[in-house]
Amino acid sequence: MLPGVYETKKKDGTTYYRASLTFKNKHISLGSSLDQNVAHQMYVEGQRMASDGNITISNFTAYLTHLSFEKAVCILNYRDNGIYIKTPIYLQKGFFLYYLTKAEPLKFDNDDLFYYSSHKIMQRNGHLFVNDYGMQYNIASRYGIKNYAVAGRDYEFANGDDSDYRYSNIIIHNRYHGITQIVKNNKTWYVAKLHLNGDVIIGKYTSETKAAVAYNKGVDFARDHGLSKKFIENYVTELTPKEYADLYTRIHISDKYKAYILSYLSSSTT
Questions:
Q1: Same domain, yes or no, for 50 and 14?
Q2: Overall pTM surpassing 0.85 (yes/no)
Q3: By the 8 A CB rule, do 207 and 220 touch?
Q4: What domain range is 21 assigned to?
């Protein structure tokens, strides 16, 4: 048997070969193959990652043929930082890199290290997910970015790098559903809208919180008058229940919005 390789069998009796190495007294599994020579090359590349100081996190992909880039990152991080992490994380000063692909890594604050060291990031249709308790969660929600949020309107990355998820780099403009921030005559307004056949303006408000409550009141008005369509409502965390109730009572939703809803309901029943 070639070095670093051992033979095993699948449940159906098929023979395959697993590769592994021991580095700094730690046994590291490298992967498997139906071909013993391929498994051996995984071992050779893994050994080189562990021992060759000329291979760094900046150039390691040039040295990979059979070993996965995820496993290479794990080995390099263990070699350079003394911590073995099962997910493809490489520690930097004050933050860490997560190698979702060979190319551009994602960047996160060290506050998120525990979470991503135990949750593997996956990509689907341009969205980044983790499995948590059997459910898939979009990682953007961890940073206050809602599933319906639009880049450039509801949030932006301060340095223009959409792979940089460090907290200081994420700017949230619109935290609530149905709310759009606008600037007019050097004054910031928050517009609450309900989407039916296009967007219907509920009102324009001086704070995001007021707009969020107005949106909820607009949804309630539509529902109370017979609109059966389900809408996402806003959970306004910065208000106590009493403060929310007081603001809800005082907040004004436009007469034009009310008239539109009543007309919409009337036309849909005829």
A1: yes
A2: no
A3: no
A4: 1-69
Q: Three-state SS string across the chain, please? A: CCCCEEEEECCCCCEEEEEEEEECCEEEEEEEECCHHHHHHHHHHHHHHHHCCCCCCCCHHHHCCCCCHHHHHHHHHHHHHCCCCCCCEEECCCEEEECCCCCCCEEEEHHHHHHHHCCCEEEECCEEEEEECCEEEEHHHHHCCCCCCCECCCEEECCCCCCECCHHHEEECCCCCCEEEEEECCEEEEEEEEEECEEEEEEEECCHHHHHHHHHHHHHHHHHCCCCCCCCCCCCCCCCHHHHHHHHHHCCCCHHHHHHHHHHHHHHCC
pLDDT, tens digit (0-9, with 9 covering 90-100), for 85-122: 999 999 999 999 999 998 889 999 999 999 999 999 99
Count of residues in the chain:
270
In the numeric block, which tokens belong to residue 184? Answer: 């007019």
Examine residue 75 and state whether it is found in any structural domain, yes or no.
no
Residues 135-167: pLDDT tens digits?
A: 888 999 889 888 778 888 889 999 999 999 999
In a domain, 213, yes or no: yes
